[in-house]
Amino acid sequence: MSVEFKTVLAPMAGYTDFAFRAICRDYGVDLTVTEMVSSKALVMGSELSRRMLYRECVDKPSFCQIFGHEPDVLAASVQIPEMAGYEGVDINMGCPVRKIVGSGDGSALLENPRLAARCITAVKLALKGRLLSVKFRLGISDSSGAVDFAKMCADSGADFITVHFRTRKQMYSGNADYTLLPQFAKLGIPIIANGDVASREQCLRLFDMGASGVAVGRGALGRPYLFAELKDEHFTFDVLRSIERHAALLLTVFEERVVANEMKKHVAAYLKGMRNGKAVVVEVMNAHNLQQIIDPCRAYFETYPSLRSIVK
Ligand SMILES: Cc1cc2nc3c(=O)[nH]c(=O)nc-3n(C[C@H](O)[C@H](O)[C@H](O)COP(=O)(O)O)c2cc1C
Predict the structure, then answer these.
(1) Using one digit for the tens of pLDDT, what is the confidence trace for 113-144?
(2) Pocket around ligand 1: residues whose beta carbon is below 6 Å from it?
């Protein structure tokens, strides 16, 4: 498979579940990525982690994102049977969360490029020809080592990189700074640019600067149709139908209690910015079961039928 992913759904823990990925697929996303999954938990047989690997067959191509810092564990995790359906694997080397960094995972690897290189090489070998990407941030508090880190990824076997153009120190605040993008682009390894992408214009600007593709995170939450917008394609998005479908898909794998919990944040995203939507979100957040989440959404769109469909 060649590396031609113009639009990518960025991995988001707690959000890019298999149902949301399938819905983004309806709107033309080129590649989806799972939530980050612990390589150690996978190898130790955690049922919860293995369930995170469930995917809809329409959601293709898709990568599984793993985190960890032990080359042999990372390599073993990509060889478990549930991983076989994924077209590739992404290694998380950007997560800034304290618990992850404290264990030596995520962005801790930015500080240890030698170990990061061993992780990449081990996973690439274990993948036996399937694609490997690495996702990382510009650096810890500045971007001085970013291009070297990217080069190391390429030399160690990554097929492409996804760069979140913020430092770890920035967490999710401030703007993504794309100054270095043209330098990354000169390395010869495809680069997926990530950070604040929310419009076709911005997407085209990043392509002009040398990006092979863009990865969208928060901009796609509640707005999976953004991927059609990025490609300037026509679409119809039925908000209520999407909420119902999202819940129904999750119910095929998870018990109702889990689905209700998951759906609360998704409904908040789907209704974000809608007229009088906040009151519904408050009601949904206090729900005790799925029915108490779906019913207020149905009632809302009965009151505001014109808000239900977004057409372009
Ligand atoms: C709620 C949330 C969860 C995230 N989880 C992950 C994750 O599991 N793995 C990862 O590499 N990045 C994760 N990220 C970072 C995103 O993939 C992305 O790099 C970041 O949000 C910047 O892109 P954006 O400005 O388009 O949101 C997460 C971000 C958010 C907001």
Answers:
(1) 999 999 999 999 999 999 999 999 999 999 99
(2) 10-15, 35-36, 65, 92, 94-95, 135, 164, 172, 194-197, 216-219
For 210, other C-beta atoms within 10 Å of its C-beta total 17
Measure the CA–CA gap between 243 and 59, rounded to whole angstroms.
18
Question: How much is the pLDDT for 1?
Answer: 47
Which residue among 164, 170, 262 has the greatest number of ligand 1 atoms within 8 angstroms of its CB, and so is best to mutate? Answer: 164
| Dihedral angle of Cα 197, 202, 208, 214, to the nearest 10 degrees | 20
What gap in Å lies between CA 153 and CA 61, rounded to an integer?
22
Measure the CA–CA gap between 182 and 184, rounded to whole angstroms.
Answer: 5
Mutation choice for ligand 1 from 99, 218, 230, 265, CB with most ligand atoms inside 8 A: 218
What residues does CATH 1.10.1200.80 cover in the chain? 236-311
Domain with CATH 3.20.20.70 in the chain: 7-230
State the CB neighbour count (10 A cutoff) for residue 265: 16
Name the pairing type of β-strands 62-67 and 88-93: parallel
CATH number of 7-230: 3.60.10.10, 3.30.980.10, 3.90.1300.10, 3.20.20.70? 3.20.20.70
Task: Please provide residue 100's backbone torsions phi and psi, each rounded to the nearest 5 degrees.
Answer: -70, -50
Q: Which residues contact 232 (CB under 8 A, 6 or more apart)?
A: 200
Closest to 306 measured CA to CA, from 272, 275, 270: 275
Q: What CATH number does the domain located at 236-311 have? A: 1.10.1200.80
SS3 157: coil
pLDDT, residue 4, reads: 84
**Catalytic residue status for 64:** no
pTM for the model stands at 0.97
